[in-house]
């Protein structure tokens, strides 16, 4: 209970942890950990604090890869900590001591955090004089090992001169074992004693590794030091196999720890040193194959060798010396989004900063080149001595590595960290392309790496295991049943039912033998089928029966079917990932290996070696697993730089405006300026590191190459027809995500426009999105939604929209046809956004990039990310117009679905703002749920976007509404008028619900205002009433005025008139308290305002004439349903009555009478003329009030399926209405919603 003691903690993750010491009296639980009890003491580098019941600031922040030394001095009664060998000072003094007070290492850590302890079983990385490790080093063995190593060095450094019979010194670097008996016997004696010691981790790390590192200290290429190869030969010759295995395992683990936990120095010398030794060891063929088979992927997380960690503390990494001048972009004006001219001083700073970044890049490239050399050794396929080539061992282990990361997404302790995966991906791409192009040089007919793709047969011939990853067409077990005939006819792959039965019975036997492993499989795997019984170290929860079946001889070339025989005749040898040989992968003597089942659509040209194709497939999968996520995460550093730069600029502006007499304020502002400047200096250097290691031009080219690989793979897969369904979903995901990364993550450091073939690549990707977002072969909801979102994003930006316009015309027309499919049959919101973005910039007052009303109230909130600069496509608009005009069934079904969704969205919006208003009026303080506010704003935005689509349709093809020779045109116009009047009435009523909620200015409802929705409605009305021919304007006017909801006051509201004005009287000046389109002259042109005034004058005149010509109607003659129109229809056989508008809408989805529920067999007009029963009236009323019986013939059987669930919200004129949004066309028959109306005159 005395002395000075030390232990080390290797930080593997930088999360929440408290590390230190405690006594046996401490009791810990879920709430109290180390440092939370009186006799426990802890350091927390995540929060930079020390803990002993209370907490105070202490030390520095730690990062993954750091080493924390925990020291306790029981003589002085103090506890202190070191970070990477640098003392953090005394943390605690006067700790409890005395008889029986023993202290033990202790740690509390949050879920999914990981560390490694070294109590002395290995040499301490940062030993401290006077402090002893908790575990004594093996002193006797150390002395013995050093002495034996000295003997070994003597043998190497001294040779025998046979001619003179004496010993002579020689250069150890050129030493070779020539079979001299004396030397060989001497070495055998040395290794007889040395070998057992080399199985101990402490001795391997302290003696052997340091000796091997000393051999490489002279510099030069690794090949210039063959002594290491000679020593490994000696080990395999003079040591037992198990001793060599253990020694190599401990040596590689020591190298991995040394590389991972080495501090970053400016020249990265430590990392380079350890990588050079790793290369020297892996150059030894026998050692390399053993390590690949048993260590690199099974014991070690060998991907660490390809990682270059990012320093959190740039001072310790020496970046201040390497990049002495810092710079960050500060030429951005947040209000106008304009880029200011760069001053001479800024230009000098930027250039100095860029020179520093180039110096850093050259040093990092040395490390990256060494990492690529390691992978080139592992991918060697020419070392056939002593078993299969290294590449095929690597390939099987690599597939298993991918399986573990794909199957354990929720278990972070098993997963490879994303930051490691990013570096591994880039190094693997470099090594793969080197071997690919090397093969191209030897085989000129093969493809170059620039044209690389994965052939489609890999996805359906079962030679490559895709675990439980989703296919485009669904589960593999489903696909191989439904597409069995297509596999036989297109790919010459035969699936024999007898063999299926045999394999299934074999599975049942195996399942009984391995019930325990089966019970451990997740339900998702059992849905596909039970997996093969495997060794415990290779247990796979993902390889289902169907996948296993396809990977056996049950998938064979097309041959005549055999007659079912005994089961043993069809039993086949099954192969798991670990058992595949070179022949299974590359093929030979007519065996196509991985390329079994080549479809006729595939070219005969050889691509490359099959093994490289599987590695390429694995690279694509790696990107999907975690690389894209990490690329997005690291952009946060750049965002931090921009935020601090903006804060610094604001602070400097405040300092310049601060009165000199307010010294106190100036001092605080100067302190803030200093803090921001220091933070920016730190972040700019760290950002330089990240830009070099993650976002450099070379890394961007890797991601771009991967994008092109995916595009070509998808295009080749699409050519095989129905077999395209076998392609894993991640190929489409990676194609979309790599484009997103190139566009959003790598700029402005590097520009995507500079990449070779950029325009062509964009066009190919546009064709894929346009074709496959509605591809029936793709069944997954998530991937279909992702394709739709990607297409929606694609049409937002001019360069990508032009790419869509460059795809073949038939594909463009097909895309627009799919976009115009009825909304009820699919998720429609994204489709609607796409159409809106194609229109934005052409609509009435629809050229803004920021919501105009926000500029008047909250300018700082006006930069909404969704409001891109308008870039309409007249070409795609023309395709849409042609489709709507030419297809007489598409137009009504599409427009009815848009009207239905508008009815629903606006009803939901009104219902929600009513709830919000009620909550705001309560006396007690109520907080409206932010989620409810978000949904409310979304419903409003959807209503606006649907109105814009209607405006687009009315503008491009007005005859759909105004040419009444077309079926359903009049009905569509009446429905449109009804909804437009309803929206106007709700939004323009004085001091109404909408006004009150808008005036609350609730966070989350910023987009809800009069302007967006009223200009959309105005745009539709102007197109119908002003921008059309005389006959069309007359019809639109009559229908609009005939609607019972029409109020002229709502139209007057658009120009700020609160009271009706006489025709010809000049408009009064705009009252600032009221909304007026005239207040938004920056967004609405004078020509557009003139059209609104023309429309108002026209409607004022027409409404006066209609009122004068309308004959008074008694209450008994009014329709008892709407109380708006005269009775114009009598039902058969019950003789109940209503107006034609009500019965027309009712018969769309119901043939029962409103009143008695009798089935309506026909309709009569009041004159007694008969009508045929049918769900849809071709003409409803006439163009004047009251409706006449000009043409009320019923057209039976012409109702489309899309019209079966029409919704209407119609507060009727002349009624007091208790309103509720309803979902049935006739609320009187709805069991859920009813409204009560009281008629008045």
TrEMBL record:
SMART domains: RING (SM00184), SPRY (SM00449). Pathway: Protein modification; protein ubiquitination. Keywords: Cytoplasm, Metal-binding, Methylation, Phosphoprotein, Transferase, Ubl conjugation, Ubl conjugation pathway, Zinc, Zinc-finger. GO terms for molecular function: ubiquitin protein ligase activity; zinc ion binding. PROSITE patterns: B302_SPRY, ZF_RING_2. Transmembrane segments: none annotated. GO terms for biological process: protein catabolic process; protein ubiquitination. The keyword GTP-binding does not apply. Coiled coil: none annotated. It holds the Pfam family TPR_RNF123. Gene3D superfamilies: 2.60.120.920, Zinc/RING finger domain, C3HC4 (zinc finger). InterPro entries: B30.2/SPRY (IPR001870), B30.2/SPRY_sf (IPR043136), ConA-like_dom_sf (IPR013320), RNF123/RKP/RSPRY1 (IPR045129), SPRY_dom (IPR003877), TPR_RNF123/RKP (IPR057987), Znf_RING (IPR001841), Znf_RING/FYVE/PHD (IPR013083). Component of the KPC complex composed of RNF123/KPC1 and UBAC1/KPC2. Interacts with UBAC1 and CDKN1B via its N-terminal domain. Interacts with RIGI (via N-terminus) and IFIH1 (via N-terminus). PANTHER family: E3 UBIQUITIN-PROTEIN LIGASE RNF123, RING FINGER AND SRY DOMAIN-CONTAINING. This is E3 ubiquitin-protein ligase RNF123.
